[in-house]
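Notes to self after the call with IL:
- keep both proteins in one doc
- input above output, always
- annotate only the second one for now

Protein 1:
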Amino acid sequence: MLPKNVFEDRNYSSQATTSIITVNYIVFAIAVQICVSCEHINLSFWVILAGLAWYNYYSIRRNSEEFADRKIQIIYGISVAGLGIIYYLLAVVAQHCNV
């Protein structure tokens, strides 16, 4: 008989964490490309961000035992901070906006 924890993921890249971070980056990058220009940010961008925040809240509540780990919380926090870098690169640098 095999021990119960033989097939557990030990490198902190579990399915829920990986999927929530991937969805965040893909949806955010597409929303920035579609809804942001140098002059203004379209209202639909904020609606998309609200939907993304709801998805994050729902996913974290559904997988609360996984997100209870401190290392997973740090990884998620760094990924959310990385969205600011993605915004800067896609909305300011790529569109050649004068800051």
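Protein 2 (the one to annotate):
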Amino acid sequence: MIIKMYWEGCPEFVVEGEDGFVIEANQTEALGKIVPILSPHEKLKFEQMREFYMAKATVGIAREGCYYFLVSCDAQAVKFESVALLTSELSGRGGKVRMMPEIPIENVADVCNIDPAAY
């Protein structure tokens, strides 16, 4: 899994304004490490939308065959997102979004150890 972006003051979580990361995961990582920890609602969303939300080509920062998740900095909230999240104008939705160097992580909880200010 790879951290792709940092979203400061993200309005997409239950705790509005919580910071988060956009995580890229291949199919094996998504099914083995992320889907099991999703809320029932997000698991259903994954099952229903997985074919539509998967990157179909490597374009820009999106990698073919990968899925994208929005993860709160405390790793307590995880949302399944469309690959379109990477190309959307997110700043219009609130908060401040910036690209991160590709930071590999083993588990979702590893985001707790990332200090965005260091990048």
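Annotation: Residues 2-118 form one domain. Helices lie at 27-34, 40-53.
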